[in-house]
Amino acid sequence: MNSDITIEIPPGKYNRYCEQRPLVCSDKKKIYRAQANLSKKGLTSSEMATLYLHDLVGCDGLEFVAFGNIRLSEPVVLPGNINLVPCFLSDIDGKNIGDELVQLTEMMRKRSRFIYDGWLPISDWRIDNVRKAIRRIDQALSIFSLQEEVSFSWKPKYNPVEMSPSSYIHFKHQHIQEVEELIHFTESLTNEDDSKALFRSIAWLSQSIRLTEPAARFLFSILAIESLADYIEKSAKDDSIFAQLKSSHLTKTERKARREECIETTLDKHLKADPRKAIDLAYSNCIKGITQRLKTHLETMFGNESEPVDLLFNTKVEEKTLYELRHTIAHGTADALSETQREIIYARVWDAERIARLYILKVLERVVGKPLFVQQMTASMNIHLDNVIITNEKMYKGPIDMASVYYSEILE
């Protein structure tokens, strides 16, 4: 615990500041009541976590951990009674360099990623009030970005519905060989434009996997598809290795002429009767052809494999296809502070990333002339024990200082 903080457990809080004890409860009725929150419809993961902790151990608020590139020298209380307490030393000059907290504080400084204990008291436990209280955290922390290049992220300390358990992939010699073969192929590309287009697409996918924000991950995955498809259909010249994959072999001049002809025909047909309809149709059918062009391209690439195209353009979840969700995010109409919307996007990130990977590999397989990455791989899941309920606190032997508990996350 931060030795600069002497505050004991505040009323209603489960832990002292900058500590995260295990969940201790031996009352089966409380456990069942707490777990019932996990099956309630319409709740976000943070809302479930908040109600879960309240019913299990009587916590009268939300305890959360925040990570930011801002270094606050002392605890602050933001509007809405949002408490942020630094879980690091305000000054390490003259401190013992062998002390764990000194080392962790220095690591946070080097990584520009500081850990804070967040506490939001809640007195009214009606779900609408809990929801508004949680949203205030996002609102308050987002305001910092207007003053400087400050970024904050946060999550509940105890989350029995962890959205992204970590995993790792087992790579063996045969898998490395497949990677090496593909690298040799990319190095053999003599057309610099082809090479740039391919690696631009791969880079969008790679960046998506590295990110944590659902909207960015989703959008980057779609961009991985769009950037390569757009290059193949519009920019690849006749000597390009990708030219054979065009769904249409019209020249740029011919495409422009076809677009203008489409506009003229549409306006001639509808302008007098309904000007608004004429403009809408001309835009959607003639100008906004990028969507149709992408769909046609993917249908050509995937052939009889209809699932990727269906997921992108036909299958609706929460009243939106993947591509409609892409427009919602890209045009700024998605609510970035709504946890409900973030979780809707998060639930579809995997499909977007999977389709992007399938598409890039399909392109490569077509030009290489053989299947790629045929060796089966296995993954292992890391199971987090932070939320395991124990009956006696002495059963737990791990760290409780938040600087130690979240040490690995400041390295990300």
What does this entry look like structurally?
The chain is an alpha+beta fold and 412 residues long. The protein has two domains: 23-162 and 384-411, no CATH class; 167-251 and 290-381, no CATH class. Helix content is 50%, strand content 10%. The protein contains 14 helices and nine strands. It has a five-stranded antiparallel beta sheet with strand order 3-4-5-2-6. Helix 6 (192-210) packs antiparallel against helix 13 (339-368) and helix 8 (252-270) runs antiparallel to helix 9 (275-287). The longest helix has 30 residues, at 339-368. The protein is globular. The chain starts with 22 loop residues before the first strand and ends in a 7-residue tail after the last helix. The relative contact order is 0.14. Residues 1-6 have low confidence and may be disordered.
Largest sheet: 5 strands, antiparallel
The termini sit apart by 22 Å
Helicity level: 40-55%
Please report the number of helical segments.
Answer: 14
Q: What order do the helices and strands follow?
A: EHHEEEHEHEEHHHHHHHHHEEH
If you compute it from the alpha carbons, what radius of gyration comes out, rounded to the nearest whole angstrom? Answer: 27 Å
Q: Which strands sit side by side, in order, in the main sheet?
A: 3-4-5-2-6
Taken as a percent bin, the fraction of beta residues is 5-15%
Protein structure class: alpha+beta
What's the total count of β strands?
9
Question: What coarse outline follows from CA principal-axis ratios?
Answer: globular
Number of domains: 2
Given as residue ranges, the uncertain stretches (5+ residues, pLDDT < 50) are 1-6
- Average pLDDT over all residues: 84
